[in-house]
Write a structure and sequence with these properties.
It is built from twelve helices and eight strands. It is an alpha/beta fold. A six-stranded parallel beta sheet has the order 3-2-1-6-7-8, sandwiched between helices.
Length: about 300
């Protein structure tokens, strides 16, 4: 459950927990990728993707790459509406979201605290319940926040006969809902432990973030028989440089400042679908997305000031 923030890893390099998280996410993704494609207007580039290349696939980060804002933030709003947690938890949730979006940094202590809070919220709930709620929340908060430009890039890969996967730190069940609604092949996401279909409040490995994303892509590519040098990856964040560096066709989409600099240095392709200089400078989602974040930010700041 890409921004409640609890999904930030405690290390920068791949660890045994990163590998475990990646392998668990790849396994979950392959089990849920039986859905068919959807037809939508495609906008392929003249020479890429290559049509009929069965060894190629595309991997898309979710937050601010495919969708404006953070999937977990929108999911949290939906859970609050359904009384999964109280107002004080929502305020804390909004404050952490505001810090992430406005400060542009991921404070490890904030993220660890937020991760533990989120896991406690779903503990004891059935996986099927959260999946069903995820379908409703997609319609309520996410459907109108899909970037048309990135959606067209994904469709170009589908039209070329390639599989397309979301790769996100959001819970794999929610990521799979979004992938299915967009007509994509499937999703790699953070795997929360469940026993007999009920969440235990623990993760399998660690959040699918940074190096863990790269491990998930590597594991899925091996299982699917893909040639990563012929694959593409798309992301907005410098945290995904490990994943982008795995493939032969990396793209920086709506990039943050660090990724933009790295992409230019490496001669990677860039695309920016945001509007307005402010959005481009600090990475705040434009249009509808900024309204949602601003509302949560204002409420959180007001609460914070009252408590001081």
């Amino acid at each position: 459950m890409a921004a409640l923030g609890w999904l930030t890893p405690r290390r920068r390099s791949a660890t045994a927990r990163s590998v475990l998280a990646g392998e668990a996410s790849a396994e979950a993704a392959r089990k849920s990728s039986q859905e068919g494609d959807v037809s939508a207007p495609a906008a392929p580039e003249p020479e890429f993707p290559v049509h009929g290349d069965e060894k190629a696939a595309a991997f898309f980060d979710l937050d601010n790459t495919v969708m404006q804002g953070a999937a977990l933030f929108h999911f949290g709003r939906g859970l609050y509406k359904r009384k999964f947690f109280e107002t004080r938890d929502l305020a804390k949730f909004a404050w952490q979201q505001a810090w992430f979006r406005l400060a542009g940094v991921e404070d490890p202590e904030h993220m660890q605290d937020a991760r533990d809070s989120a896991l406690s919220i779903v503990k004891g709930h059935r996986v099927s319940e959260l999946t069903s709620i995820g379908e409703e929340i997609y319609d309520e908060y996410m459907a109108e926040r899909i970037w048309p430009g990135t959606r067209a890039l994904a469709q170009a890969h589908l039209d070329a006969g390639q599989k397309v996967w979301l790769v996100t730190a959001a819970p794999v069940e929610i990521a799979q809902v979004i992938a299915r609604r967009l007509g994509l092949t499937g999703a790699l996401g953070t795997v929360a432990e469940s026993v007999d279909g009920v969440y235990t409040g623990r993760l399998v490995g660690e959040p699918l973030h940074g190096p863990a994303k790269a491990e998930a892509v590597r594991a899925l590519a091996a299982a699917e028989g893909l040639d990563l040098t012929r694959c593409a990856a798309y992301s907005d964040s410098h945290n995904d440089i490990p994943m982008l560096s795995l493939v032969g066709h990396p793209y920086a989409i709506n990039p943050d400042a660090k990724l933009r600099r790295h992409a230019r240095a490496m001669d990677w392709r860039l695309r920016d679908y945001r509007t307005g200089r402010k959005a481009a400078k600090v990475g705040i989602p434009a249009a509808a997305g900024v309204g949602a974040v601003a509302g949560g930010t204002a409420a959180a700041i007001a609460l914070h000031r009252r408590r001081r």
